[in-house]
Amino acid sequence: MNPPLSSFLPVFLYLSSFGAIFFDSVQALSIREASISDIQLAFKQNQLTSEQLTEFYLGEIHRLNPVLRGVIEVNPDALHQACKADWKRKAKPNGSLPVLHGIPILLKDTIGTKDKLNTTAGSFALLGSVVAHDAGVVARLRKAGAVILGKASLSEWANIRSSKAPVGWSARGGQGKNPYVLSATPCGSSSGPAISVAANMVAVSLGTETDGSILCPASFNSVVGIKPTVGLTSRAGVVPVTPRQDTIGPLCRTVSDAVYVLDAIVGYDHNDGATREASKYIPRGGYRQFLKAQGLQRKRLGIVRDPFFNFTNKPDQALAFQNHFQTLRHAGAGLVDNLKIDNIDIILNSVASGEAIATLAELKINLNAYLKALVVSPVRSLADVIAFNQNNSKLELTDQIGQDIFLASEATNGIGNAEKSALSSLANLSRNGFEKLMKQYNLDAIVTPGFEVAPVLAIGGFPAISVPAGYDNKGVPFAICFGGLKGSEPKLIEIAYSFEQATKVRKPPSFKP
Ligand SMILES: *[C@@H]1O[C@H](CO)[C@@H](O)[C@H](O)[C@H]1NC(C)=O
Ligand SMILES: *[C@@H]1O[C@H](CO)[C@@H](O)[C@H](O)[C@H]1NC(C)=O
Ligand SMILES: *[C@@H]1O[C@H](CO)[C@@H](O)[C@H](O)[C@H]1NC(C)=O
Ligand SMILES: *[C@@H]1O[C@H](CO)[C@@H](O)[C@H](O)[C@H]1NC(C)=O
Ligand SMILES: *[C@@H]1O[C@H](CO)[C@@H](O)[C@H](O)[C@H]1NC(C)=O
């Protein structure tokens, strides 16, 4: 079934200005690892067309995806879209086109597209369903000229079906693999987007996060993930968990690629009320102005050692973070050490914090509304999905995996007293925890290893950026995460970009067993 590992040997594709593939040591352009800026330059110099780039990625998906399973579907119209982008570029040679013009992007399979692609959250229950509109973020991507390359795999239903579901697995997508160490977790639930950009099966990608679903796969697949402030990016047309925490954000190989994608997808959408309030955070001129190599100067960074810097059995991370603290200081940041977040033990325990109680009730309400609004769908409610999984036990591995979270959600009955109390507990924990700490010490960000800070940020709707920070002795990647208050993306981008430029940790995957 699996191609021999020798077929994973790096292959470099070089393109001439006439489109023929050849090797040229002077004008060679390596598409593998190419950033958006590299690609746009190659477009401009007539070294590459969007069609060739799309062909390259389709070829890589064909070659790598049988093992990696980062992609569920490729778009039959992708090459056509690429040709249109090329035609438009030729028609206005000196015109200024958006930076995503002609750039292939992969979307997590929860992000709705009104085209030939299915939107299924990885489940056969939604196969054949038809969405009313493109998701808000997809409409923006199309306007920016991006090529919708396909749908990326995920932990089925964004990991909200069962506590026993394998991470990175979905019935439609199969088991996603970590391209660095195939036996290591890819993490989830936005596993496919992270796997696919890491392995150069696409230029850039979009994932979603309710609690950790961008930050964790970014960490394990050595890519940059931006979890935007809730409401900065529209959730309209995306299979929901809870709009209180759901956010859509980029997973890319570099901070600048992620920022270009962020610039394209943020903004007001009348189909998502939260975007009205959050649009006040969007700076005039967008986010790319914060890609400053000196961005760490005079930044105040908080370090919460307990419980985040527990490196028992992780000597590689311990050493890496010693060096990273040095790098941050040398780049002009002030580290405020040994800080505490009040009630951190409760915040990190979703049952104790109220996050689980609130989310279960919200999931039922929001998923039912999503399913009801579909133009066509085999399932119209969470109850239908549960029945589908029962009826199609073999297809959905229901006997092995179960659906305990779905069943618990179905058993809820709206926002009652228990849920109200959970919601106020969450708000209080956030206000008197992370928010108080950030304000008290006048911090620009807190710095943590990996993704473990995710619940702290999730329950308050706060943003974060994950940047590659190293590889352990087995070759499994780990990240550094910069989290901040709502709307602090400009500062987080300055910090993340400056850290990335100072360290350049990311290297392409080598597909170790
Ligand atoms: C585009 O720019 C080039 C040189 O920069 C110039 O020679 C050419 O005339 C311009 N074409 C158009 C259509 O403006
Ligand atoms: C969407 O699903 C249908 C099956 O319902 C399938 O025939 C079709 O090929 C899928 N679309 C894509 C782009 O894979
Ligand atoms: C640190 O991590 C180890 C291993 O994961 C765990 O056993 C230990 O309890 C942790 N220590 C603290 C102080 O949290
Ligand atoms: C499940 O099976 C039952 C009994 O055959 C049927 O009535 C029902 O429509 C099915 N539901 C779904 C969602 O597949
Ligand atoms: C909010 O949290 C503070 C400190 O953590 C606590 O003293 C207070 O009782 C809490 N208030 C509510 C309404 O839960």
From TrEMBL:
UniProt keyword annotations, A-Z: Signal
Start and end residues of each Amidase domain: 53-456
Pfam families per record: Amidase
Domain of life per record: Eukaryota
Gene3D superfamilies linked to this entry: Amidase signature (AS) domain
Signal peptide: 1-28
InterPro entries noted in UniProt: Amidase_dom, AS_sf
Stated name of the protein: Amidase domain-containing protein
Species: Eucalyptus globulus (Tasmanian blue gum)
